[in-house]
Amino acid sequence: MVHVEPFRLDPDRYPLKVRILARYADVDPLLHINNVAVAQYYEEARVSATMMVMGGKSIPAAGHERILIAHQSIDYLREGTYPGSLDVGVGVMRIGRTSYRYGMAMFQDGACTSVSEAVLVYADAHGPARLPETYRQRLEAWLITAG
Q1: Are 32 and 38 in contact (CB under 8 A)?
Q2: Under 8 Å between Cβ of 102 and 46
Q3: How many degrees, rounded to 5, is the angle at CA 17 between CA 16 and CA 23?
Q4: What's the predicted TM-score (pTM) here?
Q5: CA-to-CA distance for 77 and 13, rounded, in angstroms?
Q6: Burial 27-63 (b: 16+ CB within 10 A, else e)
Q7: Is cis: bond before 15, omega within 30 of 0?
Q8: Do 144 and 13 meet the contact criterion of CB atoms below 8 Å apart?
Q9: Cα distances (Å, whole numbers) of residue 63 to 59, 68, 124, 147
Q10: pLDDT tens readout for residues 72-122
Q11: Are strands 99-108 and 85-95 parallel, antiparallel or unpaired?
């Protein structure tokens, strides 16, 4: 079993929440949500949060400004089921000079079904670039830690 820091299992620790409605097309014959769908649910939450970081701009924005995914991991803790909805909590674990790391967790009926981390890189037309101060401030407001 994967070790997950206890604070990551608490839905109240995540400042951003995205509700996902489980779809019948996303399940296996036992009505468990499959791993491909879980990755898509995390993608939906990650993109929603990223659009908030960028102040509602489309991705990519004018001037070749964009945020790219460099890493995504998912640890499965229990099965998600259909029918129902899932809540994906999103917080920021770390902010670097050109990148940041989301910590995310998926919950169904109050139980954590999986956790995920994603590293995103801010880039302009020339490649990775320093995070704009307005983006950094938004990210700092969403920091989550074990403390």
Answers
A1: no
A2: yes
A3: 150
A4: 0.91
A5: 18
A6: beeeebbeeebbeebbeebbeebbeebbeeeeeeeee
A7: no
A8: yes
A9: 11, 15, 7, 39
A10: 999 999 999 999 999 999 999 999 999 999 999 999 999 999 999 999 999
A11: antiparallel
Parallel, antiparallel or unpaired: strands 66-76 and 111-124: antiparallel
List all residues 6 or more positions away from 43 whose beta carbon is below 8 Å from its beta carbon. none
Terminal CA-to-CA distance of the chain, rounded, Å? 24
Q: Which two tokens stand for residue 43?
A: 């993608």
Give the pLDDT mean for 37-65: 82
Q: Is the peptide bond before 128 cis (omega within 30 degrees of 0)?
A: no
Higher pLDDT, 59 or 130: 130
* Cα(105)–Cα(117) distance, integer angstroms: 9
Matching residue, tokens 């990223």: 50
Q: How far, in Å, CA of 118 to CA of 63, rounded?
A: 24
